[in-house]
Design goal:
The protein is of the alpha/beta class and 351 residues long. It is built from 14 helices and seven strands. The protein folds into two domains: 82 residues, DNA polymerase, domain 1 (Orthogonal Bundle); 245 residues, Metal-dependent hydrolases (TIM Barrel), CATH 3.20.20. 43% of the residues lie in helices and 9% in strands. It has a seven-stranded parallel beta sheet with strand order 1-2-3-4-5-6-7. Helix 7 links the parallel strand 1 and strand 2. Helix 10 packs parallel to helix 11. The longest helix is centred in the middle third of the chain and has 17 residues. The chain is elongated. 47% of the residues are buried. The structure holds zinc ion (2 copies). The site of one zinc ion has 5 residues, from loops. InterPro entries: DNA_pol_lamdba_lyase_dom_sf, PHP_dom, PHP_phosphatase, Pol/His_phosphatase_N, Pol/histidinol_Pase-like, PolX_PHP, UCP036978_PHPhdr. Pfam families: PHP (PF02811). Keywords: Hydrolase.
Length: 351
């Protein structure tokens, strides 16, 4: 019996393996080997790679280890690499049991990170994967300066990043996909934002999140969040309770605040409540999701992806939103790009 044919080439095989590992939440060190090997092969002539396969010298290429070499050899010979076939079977299926109809309506994602802050992959890899997943838009939202552990971007670095986003969009021109400019800006203790007004103005979409003093008392936390929601440049309230329900970072309880007051502020200002799809967050919890629904809030189903494979996590958020009976029309990420941008530019500006 001969192995099934494969003609996408070695780089696509390595990228797909990395994607599936991330999608299946495997350890990042495993993923790094495959992404590193893909990057090592990218500048090489395909004939050169084929010659290495022929001579059994793939591992002499810096960045190509034994398991990557086996994948490359199979792909070059035109057969499905065994590792790839195994991972497709293990991690390639539907992520969630429900929410498929809503998932089909989602056009984009307002929250993702690159290796400019605490993500694991370059901007172009995140953008290219979002395009491959059929997204119309992906917002790049690296962290703001105060979050030093996540290498938050100063105003200067953010300005440089915006040039890179323009360049990536130039490469993807005509694809129907746009990488949008954004930020996940820290909500400071007094409710102000951790980035200059001028830089915030230059962005398409702004997600504001609490990352520090998560245990402050409820009255102060409520004032802090309501103030941020009322900021005219804030479009999305990110992972509102800050809880962690599972995963490598352990668990963390919800912050305490007056959720009704916060969601009423969101409804009043047209700020979207984020449904954070990360399996370890599942934020907001169901009772708060239903409260925000009843108050009449807008929602954004976001991945908060820190790696390309995590861009597929929208399935988890869609499942929860559908279970909570949220009208897709109130989910801004079902909207086409032009409508989304009009909403995000809403503080009385042109358009
Ligand atoms: Zn965050
Ligand atoms: Zn984030």
């Amino acid at each position: 019996m001969s192995a099934p044919a494969y003609d996408d080439g070695p780089i696509a095989a390595l990228r797909r393996i990395a994607f599936l590992l991330e999608r299946g939440r495997e350890d990042t060190y495993k993923v790094k080997a495959f992404r590193g090997a893909a990057a090592a092969l990218l500048p090489l002539d395909p004939d050169e790679v084929a010659a290495h396969v022929e001579q059994g010298t793939l591992s002499s290429i810096p960045g190509v280890g034994a398991s990557s070499a086996a994948v490359v050899a199979d792909a070059v010979r035109g057969v499905v690499p065994e590792r790839l076939a195994r991972l497709e079977a293990e991690h390639g299926g539907a992520l969630a049991a429900g929410g498929h109809e809503l998932l089909g309506l989602l056009r984009g994602d307002l929250h993702s990170h690159s290796d400019w802050s605490d993500g694991g992959s370059p901007i172009e890899e995140m953008a290219f994967t979002a395009l491959e997943l059929g997204r119309e838009y992906q917002v790049l939202t690296d962290h703001s300066p105060r979050l030093k552990v996540a290498r938050g971007l100063s105003a200067e670095r953010l300005a440089r990043q915006l040039d890179v986003v323009d360049a990536v969009n130039g490469q993807l021109d005509g694809s129907g996909f746009t990488l949008l400019k954004g930020i996940e800006v820290d909500i400071l203790d007094d409710g102000s934002l951790d980035q200059s007004e001028e830089m915030l103005q230059r962005l398409d979409v702004r997600v504001a999140s609490v990352h520090s003093k998560l245990r402050m008392d409820a009255a102060a936390m409520t004032r802090r969040m309501v103030a941020a929601v009322h900021h005219p440049l804030v479009d999305v309230l990110g992972h509102c309770t800050g809880r962690l329900v599972t995963g490598g970072r352990g668990t963390r309880p919800e912050s305490t605040f007056d959720a009704r007051a916060v969601f009423e502020a969101c409804a009043e200002t047209g700020t979207a409540v984020e449904i954070n799809s990360r399996p370890e967050r599942r934020d907001p919890p169901t009772r708060l999701l239903e409260l925000a629904r009843d108050i009449g809030c807008l929602f954004a189903i976001d991945t908060d992806a820190h790696a390309p494979g995590q861009l597929d996590f929208l399935a988890y958020g869609a499942e929860r939103a559908e279970a909570a009976g949220i009208d897709p029309e109130r989910i801004v990420t079902t909207w086409p790009k032009d409508r989304l941008l009009e909403w995000a530019g809403r503080p009385g500006e042109a358009g």
